[in-house]
Amino acid sequence: MGLFMLFIILMCVKMFSLPADEYDHHYYERGLNFDKDYAKERQVVTDKAQPMIRISGREVNITFADQAVGTARFVRPSSEALDKTFNISTDAGKTTAMSVSSLAKGRWHIVLEWKSDYKNYLYEKEVDLQ
What we know:
Layout: H1 2-17, H2 27-46, E1 52-56, E2 59-63, E3 69-75, E4 84-89, E5 95-99, E6 106-116, E7 119-129
């Protein structure tokens, strides 16, 4: 009987010492926004507005189909702390350039979100920075 009580007490101590389950607190909010993001991604395909991304050295050049204003997020898959966001604006032309010398070398996920001709677009691509 004593061993059984000791077993139960040890199990309770072990159970309460484990960390709480980590879950995404914004799960439902992201689920509601999924349709909006999907519509933006489909708009890129519909309008054939896929941007062209060129990497030359420590600079990233992005060419859009038309003038664009928005953001470019560089997401590091291995560390959220390294993520960085750049504002983009093509002004009179269709190309914008960003210096990525502050970013670590390796694989990055670029998320482009922009507005052009009163339409919203979203495009994602993985790139390797040297």
